[in-house]
Amino acid sequence: MAISLEKGQKVDLTKTNPNLKKIMLGLGWDIKKLDAGTDFDLDALAFLLNKSGKMQTEKDFVFYNNLKHESGAVVHSGDNRTGAGEGDDELITVEFSKVPSNVDKIVFVITIFKAEERKQNFGMVSNSFVRVVDADTNAELMRYNLGEEFSIETGVAICEVYRYNNEWKFGAIGSGYKGGLDALIKNYGA
Question: Which of 27, 38, 60, 151 could form a disulfide with 44 if both were Cys (CB 3.0 to 4.6 A apart)?
Answer without folding.
Answer: 27
